[in-house]
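Colleagues,

Please find the record for the two-part complex below.
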Amino acid sequence: MTLSIIVVYMALVIGIGVVSNRLLSSTGEDYFLATRSIGPVVLLMSLFGTNMTAFALLGSSGEAYHVGIGVFGLMPAISGLVIPTVFFVLAPRAWAIGKRHGYTTQVEFFRDRWGSDLLGLLLFIVLVALVIPYLLIGVMAGGVTLNQVTFGQVPEWIGGLVICLVVMSYVTIGGLRGTAWVNTFQTIVFMVLGAVTVTVVFSRMGGVGTVMARIAEEAPALLAREGNFNYVRWLTYSLIPLSAGMFPHMFMHWLSAKRADSFRLTVQAYPLCIALVWLPPVLLGVAGTLDFPGLIGGQSNSILVRMISLHAPGVLAGLLGAGVFAAVMSSLDSQVLSLGTMFTEDIVDHYGYGDSMTDKQKVASGRIFVAVILLFTYGLSLVSERSIFNLATWSFTGFASLFPIAIGALFWRRSTKIGALACVITVVVLWTYFFTQGWGDRAYTVGGTGVMAVAVILGASSIAMIVGSLLSSPPEPERVERFIAPS
Amino acid sequence: MSTKQWLAFGLLATMYVLHNDWWLWSDSELIAGLPIGLAYHVLYMVVTALVLAIVVRLAWPTHLDSQGDR
């Protein structure tokens, strides 16, 4: 039964991709950006669905299992403020410039802003490298979910493989329009199923109050932050959601909006959507310590699915499996599409490799690139035992540290390509250093001080951007005015 | 920046400060069945949505739609 529900769900998702394909015009702008026609509701759902992934469902429940309810304040509460603020500040402006000059990708946008091919190439490599751990958590989540809801009958490697194949299928068929539609559908699915799941499971456990009272007796530390969170870490963690300003897949969705005003709904509704999605997994993760004590490290990734399988097997477990798959695929699809688009536009087309190719061959080259990246990620998922929360945090650290690029491009007329290059190189060097330092440590902070690596890297990359710009020649005014209107 | 934009910025900065509820850091008391720290942040997110609705009304960059069409 459980497996049948998941199979039906997968078929439904591919079906939506096929239907949207019938509405697809033959232009590249429609495939990549849905002809910049996405209205407020689908924009909210597709941006939110793209942003919420295995990190929100399995990662948060796994982390709450270890450190308690503070996870909700640490990540979703501050994301509910920072991410919509980032959208408010950046998205409508990027949309207006993108529409006026016909930009399709983030790399193209920044390359043109500072007139530097080197910057474009470097950004392409860095963005692809940072998306890989983000893809990895989705593929890992697919494996864990299918394995747990079938009580181990389906090995983890099959779940990851299924996720990769289904996503490749509907992205290939439906382009960004298909991805936006599927994301809207999937976002509704995982929001509704999350609420239903937590209601059913807690009612079978005697109610939220009863469960929390039991935890207060057996593991009271999980209900407070003292001892589980360092206050400096808490403060510096608030920089992580700035990553939403530099995700290539989010940027691509920004460009797909119909109007700048379409972002208003997203900015206002985002905190409520985040609360609705994150609260059930955090509650279930904490409650999971009662039923499944003693899980170590990455084993807690599966606590949400274990809880459902224990308290609500059968139909609900199948629906939950579909919900987790929905959350995972609604991010993977956009990431895959943005990677393929960047490869086609910023490498094949920009460097002239595509001069002798037909449009179909160019798009096919992007798909081959994506297939190679997915294959590589899938291979990593077979050997990785990492915490989903931890992997995502490192990926987000890199993106958040590139944030000065977005601010410089849209607001600082004096910023130069030397400044932007210095910023990216600083991020590459420091991120690599801290990543290798913190690889074995789940709660790594710089020198054990509580300061998250993101604070140091972002500080350094901001300084590099400012100093590099001020020490180099001012940019040509005509180029600047294409991006920033004269005051 | 206009007065409305400063006001919007001030509201967002206030929300950032309110996120850091150090006074509940070690409190595990249950309120309506939820730990107080969790209940605080659920309420915080509802208030954040209201504040963002005000910010959008105060300081939305209305000129951008026409810029995109140029």
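Chain A has one domain: 2-230+247-385.

Comments are welcome before we finalize the supplementary table.
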